[in-house]
Give the backbone structure.
Amino acid sequence: MGTHINKLVIVGGGTAGWITAAAFSRLLGKTLSIELVESDAIGTVGVGEATIPQIIRLNTILGLDEHDFVKRTNGTFKLGIEFVDWGQLGSSYLHTFGDAGMNLASVPFHHYWKRAENAGLNKDLWHYSLHKCAADQAKFGKLDRVGNTSMTGLAYAYHFDASLYAAYLRAYSEKHGVKRTEGIVQTVARNAESGDLTAITLDNGQEIAGDFFIDCTGFRALLLGQELGVEYQDWSKWLPCNSAQAVPSERLETLVPYTRATAKTAGWQWRIPLQHRTGNGHVYCSDFISDDEAGETLLAGLDTKPLADPRPIRFTTGRREQFWSHNCAAIGLSSGFLEPLESTSIHLIQSHVSRLLQLFPTSANPEKERAEYNRRCVAEFEQIRDFLILHYHQTEREDSGFWRYCKNMEVPDSLSHKQELFASSGRIGRDADDLFREASWVQVMLGQGVTPEAYDPMANGLADAQLGEFLGNVRTLIERAVHSLPTHEQYLQKHCASAGS
Ligand SMILES: Cc1cc2nc3c(=O)[nH]c(=O)nc-3n(C[C@H](O)[C@H](O)[C@H](O)COP(=O)(O)OP(=O)(O)OC[C@H]3O[C@@H](n4cnc5c(N)ncnc54)[C@H](O)[C@@H]3O)c2cc1C
């Protein structure tokens, strides 16, 4: 590679630091010398246990053995997120990683379903979802297709123990030549002329020089924020939750293959099933509930016995004005934070790492690469932001100050356009590079209670009897496919049982 960069310094050894180290050592390990500095005394944020299917790409790039990976992180498989009490109290839906039914003549399935529903069909869209059918029966297995049809099989992600995940990637990175140094960064030296970072000094006086620095210091943003002064754009007016309390509890009796997100009076509570325990947390807005009350809500909402006391975490949703400035890029919580409702943070780490690798400097002043990197990171953050806001804003709930605020707040034009388009015609106005696919937008819009006024007229291409037959066949094929799957528990026991499970 034609780069003048010989030494890469990563500061921070949380999930972000170790994913970055793993990927860079795998792909540029022969070109760069890589050193990661972390401090056991400072520790990591210690949460981040649910993922989305894109993580499989990262694992493939790293060449990880999936079953070994799941086993060593006490992991489980995830088919989606169950949202309880969001659109209104008593409602629930599963945002799955798959499509409902199958598209026909290029017309998305939900338009056929809507046509049938208008004509009196009494089944919701999820009646035709392979993922929902498998999730309801706590089943999981590898399935590329449904029968001999073009209906796609099970798309999945993982739940895992965050500390075991970081340890797993650390072992991987060290094996690939990354040098780990323990210590607290105390000062940062810069080139007087260019302002670029040149070295960091640790609390024991050791100086570590580098050509390029990656700031993975979590919410502190030690290099990009504190040293380089890149400002933070606060998105709390759209995503007002600013606090969380996390607590582990005993494992679930039935290991369901999905995360659950239950809306509460001033936020929501997650439940993440792992092989040896359950991860739980209450994400809330402190303007509407006290920390004590939030802790009580969390404990009252547990399905199994708590194993520790709730641990508080504060955050501000938003992003850095730039993700890469001078010779320093921020990856992970240091670059911004989108609250964990759709488990997107680890994905953002992975996507920033792969973008940085694609645009890694080949000249002393990589102005164009930096601008392109920042442009693409901003777009990605904003697309995910809109998808998250949809969950809060598209609601009938008015039973607390928090929900009245969310229901009535102004939202970005980019989101209201999508809401209006779907409400009028069931169509989705997503950007081509949006992380969330059409099927995701459709599920969340319908799940939150939007009823489209019309469906795509191309769905009238089938006669009434053909439409009934088509829907019936889809359901039969799904039932058959799910019948042949093992339970999630059986799959784990057979392929990736952890020592502690
Ligand atoms: C409540 C909550 C729930 C979440 N749930 C999910 C989820 O389900 N799915 C998901 O994808 N993401 C989730 N996330 C996000 C996820 O936790 C983070 O993206 C992920 O853990 C990465 O964190 P990090 O490595 O950026 O920061 P951290 O884990 O905070 O690591 C920072 C590192 O920097 C080091 N450091 C800091 N300052 C110094 C210094 N001066 N000198 C040396 N070292 C230093 C620390 O020692 C540490 O190693 C959640 C986040 C929160 C807050």
In short: The pocket of flavin-adenine dinucleotide is lined by residues 11-17, 37-39, 42-45, 47-51, 184-185, 216-218, 220, 222, 244, 281, 283, 313, 315, 332-334, 340, 343, 345-346 (CB under 6 Å). The first helix runs from residue 15 to 28. Residues 1-97+155-411 form a domain with the FAD/NAD(P)-binding domain fold (CATH 3.50.50.60). The longest strand covers residues 243-249.
